[in-house]
């Protein structure tokens, strides 16, 4: 990336399960966690309440050319009106990811063929992250 290039990254807040979510995404989405720091590891870590010390202060997960950043914050709520979008190469891959992410979550639009994609779905996973899955884009 050039010195003056701008890069947009996504930051997701969790109410205490950021590490679990990121480890799940790393395992099932082919990502790589490149940074994970707890609240206890910060310079003022000794003043962090005991029940919050192992919560995540900052994490970074690389998925393809994109970074997903995250943290645990008190009273975080599930994502609303925004989606992480995964573009998938095959219908089989789309179905597999849909099955993994929808388990224990909430489906807004079930996986199906649309006029613009062989597979499309919208859901919120069990961690509160909203996803849009787009497989095999159709071309006119």
CATH architecture of the largest domain: 2-Layer Sandwich
Strand order of the largest sheet: 1-4-3-2
Compressed to H and E, one letter per element, the order equals EHEEEEHEEE
Radius of gyration: 17 Å
Number of strands: 8
Helix content: 10-25%
Strand content: 35-45%
Number of helices: 2
Q: What structural category characterises the helix and strand content?
A: alpha/beta
In total, how many domains does the architecture comprise? 2
The average pLDDT value, as a whole number, equals 92
- Described by its quaternary structure, the protein is single chain
Using the alpha-carbon principal axes, give the shape.
Answer: elongated
CATH topology of the largest domain: Signal recognition particle alu RNA binding heterodimer, srp9/1
Query: Main sheet, how many strands, which sense, barrel?
Result: 4 strands, mixed
Distance between the termini: 33 Å
Low-confidence stretches: none
CATH class of the largest domain: Alpha Beta
